[in-house]
Amino acid sequence: MKILFFDDFRLGVLKGDHVVDVSQVVxxxxxxxxxxxISGLIERFADYxxxxxxxxxxxxxxPLKSVRIRPPLPKPxxxxxxxxxxxxxxxxxxxxxxxxxxxxxxxxxxxxDTMILPDVPAPIFEGEAELxxxxxxxxxxxxxxxxxEYIFGYLNFIDGSARGLPPAGNTFYQMKSRATFAxxxxxxxxxxxIPDPHNLQVRLWNNGVLMQNYHTSDMxxxxxxxxxxVSSIHPMEPxxxxxxxxxxxxxxxxxxxxxxxxxxxxxxRLHVKVRDDLKRTWARETRLQxxxxxxxxxxxxxxxxxxxx
Length: 309
Hints:
With 309 residues, the protein is of the alpha+beta class. It folds into 2 domains: 2-70, no CATH class; 79-303, Fumarylacetoacetate hydrolase, domain 2 (Alpha-Beta Complex). The chain is 14% helix and 32% strand. The protein has helices spanning 34-43, 45-58, 172-176, 223-231, 287-292; strands spanning 2-6, 10-15, 18-21, 62-63, 69-70, 79-82, 100-103, 108-109, 114-116, 124-135, 151-163, 182-190, 201-206, 209-215, 241-243, 259-264, 269-275, 281-282, 301-303. Strands 1, 2, 3, 4, 5, 6, 7, 8, 10, 11, 12 and 15 form a 12-stranded mixed sheet that branches. Strand 1 (2-6) and strand 2 form a beta hairpin. The longest helix is centred in the first third of the chain and has 14 residues, at 45-58.
């Protein structure tokens, strides 16, 4: 099942190229807004699934292209992101030590929304194309052997990053938790539709040019270990997001006017725009292209505020 919010945060289910409104089916779930309506549904999904499926079968819906798609998880309790969790197409000799960071729920945006680059002296802004999972029930000290039982579904995720902000060593919080730096969606795909999440192709295009293109089989610490490790640090709640990391070789500068698309095939294609009121510019190159040229460090900023002479 593919679940989404649309227009004024009506809850819908995708049926072909149409979306069927199922808001009435779930209206008795206690909630104060869409953020805890969806988490409440996830927590009670076994009780509501049959009625939702019946409503979808009976409804014709409206064309998906005629609605505004909203973030499917508008404000989860936690967004946890795995760090350096890919073998980079076999170029890493061994996995990096398992690591993660927490990203602000206020950074969430959805399909068609705009990622805004702030006026800060970041040498570069990037967005990491990632597969993310959605927690289905409270996960506290979950053993790896049972971890997959805690997954409700999956969705596309872009981890926006303002790299290299001073002072040195003061990194993840100010780099990752900026407003608009967590594009997600366009919908949640329930776990039963993804037989093997370690067998998916993840792609990101910038202005129609394929930049990131990697396979989740290259994941260093697999999903059960990620859930085990994160849940040993803090409990994860229904509707929480765990982003599973990226292959960094295709990362490239995000800049004003960019049209970004990410697609993990069963999860649909997420479209977001980029706006930079300072209109800073960088060369159009990936980290790998820069490495092949024998160049080190980030692609330098070419023009605009904070560009170095």
